[in-house]
Amino acid sequence: MRVDLFDFDLPAENIALRPARPRDSARLLHVDGSKPFGHRHVRDLPQLLRAGDVLVFNDTRVIPAQLDGMRGEARIGATLHKRIDLRRWQAFVKNAKRLRPGDVIQFGANFTAIAEERHDNGSWTLFFEGDEPVEVLLERAGRMPLPPYIAGKRATDEADKHDYQTIFAQEDGAVAAPTAALHFTPELLDALDAAGVSRETLTLHVGAGTFLPMKVDDTTDHTMHAEWGQIDEDTAVRLNAVRQNGGRLIAVGTTVLRLLESAVDENGIIQPFAGDTSIFITPGYTFRAIDGLMTNFHLPRSTLFMLVSALMGLEKMQSVYSEAIANKYRFYSYGDSSLLLP
């Protein structure tokens, strides 16, 4: 499909630079089949779902994966993208033309990395020297990797260490937050429990590739970035039981949806999964694992806007986004949310 079919105009004032406070006070555009749009708030979720439904969350934890360093006199910026092994990460590098294989980058006292290999997409493999775990080094010298549409307008600060982390965050490895889950609070979870809506977690380590612009004119020419995910056997069994008992499986975020659709078989049974997924979902895709999606509002011409268009239909999503823009919903990572029920 032509990428320009997924373009739209978004006023700059609709881009959120800070989250709503409290988190569950964010607005929620309720899109339920052919019913009129509902303008609600995230805290209204218990009234919008049914007893027996399950919300599925991503328990990945964002690491401070943005680094500033020096190679000799040259400034080098690195955003870690994907773990390779205990001491190696693939990273997008700013000022990469100043790097050669074997160069040493100094990111701080006793914190150095060797630039080992440049990849076809411009990223580098960095080998972090020393005995301390890389995660410890990052906590000391790294910054939270805010999306470029926020970082380009303000500096990262102490508030982002909390704001850009969900309450489900357990497993270190993401360099971008699963933002749909940023809206949840303990009080909202209590209300969902009381309404009979259960929850499950899985892990998908979101990579910085999620922010890369599409550089092709047709979706068939796009190579999707890979991310590592895991669904354990017990979780898969419980998720399948929900649907067998008539409940709906609602993915909280596109990361959850992509992992579930990677793990489901042709009969609609979710299988245990551990490994990379580079699934690219565009209109025409047949969904087998999920019955709905809670998600924030995405960038024009992005793979994520293509994904929601596959779920609801392109014309429907164009109408949804027009409604959101006209009603001044806040977009992107710190923005408002939507509940999409085909």
UniProtKB/TrEMBL annotation:
Give any GO molecular function from the UniProt entry: S-adenosylmethionine:tRNA ribosyltransferase-isomerase activity
Q: Which residues form the signal peptide?
A: none
Q: Where in the cell is it found?
A: Cytoplasm
Catalysed transformations (reactions): 7-aminomethyl-7-carbaguanosine(34) in tRNA + S-adenosyl-L-methionine = epoxyqueuosine(34) in tRNA + adenine + L-methionine + 2 H(+)
> Which pathway is recorded for this entry?
tRNA modification; tRNA-queuosine biosynthesis
Domain of life the protein comes from: Bacteria
Q: Which UniProt keywords apply?
A: Cytoplasm, Glycosyltransferase, Isomerase, Queuosine biosynthesis, S-adenosyl-L-methionine, Transferase
Instruction: State any GO CC term.
Output: cytoplasm
EC nos: 2.4.99.17
Enzyme class at the top of the EC tree: transferase
Q: Which Pfam families match?
A: Queuosine_synth
Q: What's an example Gene Ontology biological process for this entry?
A: tRNA queuosine(34) biosynthetic process
Under Gene3D superfamilies, the record lists: QueA-like
Function comment = Transfers and isomerizes the ribose moiety from AdoMet to the 7-aminomethyl group of 7-deazaguanine (preQ1-tRNA) to give epoxyqueuosine (oQ-tRNA).
Query: How does the record describe its quaternary structure?
Result: Monomer.
Q: What family does this chain come from, according to its entry?
A: Belongs to the QueA family.
From the Swiss-Prot or TrEMBL record, give the protein name: S-adenosylmethionine:tRNA ribosyltransferase-isomerase
Gene transcribed to yield this protein: queA
